[in-house]
Amino acid sequence: MFLEVMSRVFWISGLPRFLDLLRRTVFRPILYMCTWKPGLIRVTLMKIAYNICMRPSEILCIARAIELKRPCRLLVFGLGNDSMFWSLLNRCGKTVFLEDHPVWFGRVTSLNPSIKAFLVEYNTILIEWNELLKHPEYLRMDFPENIGNELWDVILVDGPVGWKKTAPGRMKSIFAAGNLGTASADVFVHDCNRKMEQVYSDRYLGSDNLVRQVGKLRHYRFSESPYYQIPSDSADNSDLLMESCSGFPVTAV
To answer: What is the pLDDT of residue 107?
Structure first.
């Protein structure tokens, strides 16, 4: 209750709007420096300036995978202050964000109108996570614009909210990540200090596919799909290179 009251006071104060203005203007060079050449110091500055929840080491872990596969198909569950960074980092690739909170969706997309994001519904409650393990058929999602019919090279699960019992939890997004990756996909799940994220990630992404854990972030890499065999040419991104490129240029480290 106390946290909710303080959150309302914070929003009413007008400080978030002022910070958003700084992030659109003064702080932009920091963001561009990070997408040009990610490094611990630059990413730390970006984390502070943009109030990003992930640790710098976690951000760099994901960034390295994107750089190696760029241009790639990047799917992110959850919108945040780091969204523009991921979009710019995957220059010339396809980056899509899925968010379930309408207010947060409006705030982030208005701050970064160039990103491609969609509203989705989860219709789950975190407290149901253990029971839903027995009924995976209820974990399937309805995706907009045939997103569920595509295969993705890098998937980041950082949403929806999963820290209170009445929240949707990340059961569906983790389950989806296990089915939407290419045969060599890199999948990242944040907040794996929590039991639900640990259990669902090991089951639906495959404990044998766990590459590393950095802080609260787990990195899984598929040697083959956990659920079905994907055609070997499904990861071919040559068509992405044919699309027009825009945004700040990025070079691999």
So the answer is: 87
User: pLDDT tens, 81-108?
Assistant: 999 999 999 999 999 999 999 998 998 9
- Cα separation, 119 vs 97, whole angstroms: 9
Considering only CA atoms, which of 184, 152, 1, 163 is closest in space to residue 74?
Answer: 152
| Range list of H helices, the chain | 2-12, 15-24, 28-36, 40-50, 56-69, 83-89, 102-111, 129-132, 171-180, 195-201, 238-241
Query: For the residues of 41-110, what is the DSSP string, one character each?
Result: HHHHHHHHHHT-SS-HHHHHHHHHHHHHH-S-EEEEES--TTHHHHHHHTTTSEEEEEE--HHHHHHHHH
Closest CA to 78 of 62, 92, 67: 62
Other CB atoms within a 10 A radius of the CB of residue 118 amount to 16
- pLDDT for the residue numbered 23: 63
Instruction: Kindly indicate the confidence band of residue 13, based on its pLDDT and cuts at 50, 70 and 90.
Output: low
Ramachandran sector of residue 78 (left: φ over 0; alpha: ψ -120 to 50; beta: rest): left
Output the pLDDT for position 37. Answer: 85
Domains of the chain: 55-227 (3.40.50.150)
Q: Which residue has the tokens 């899509």?
A: 96
Report whether 183 contacts 150 (CB < 8 A): no
Interhelix angle 40-50/28-36, rounded to 10 degrees, is 150
| Confidence at 20, pLDDT banded by 50, 70, 90 | low
The CA distance from 97 to 168, in Å, is 17
Distance CA 171, CA 238 (A): 32
> What's residue 241's pLDDT?
44
For the entire predicted model, the pTM comes to 0.83
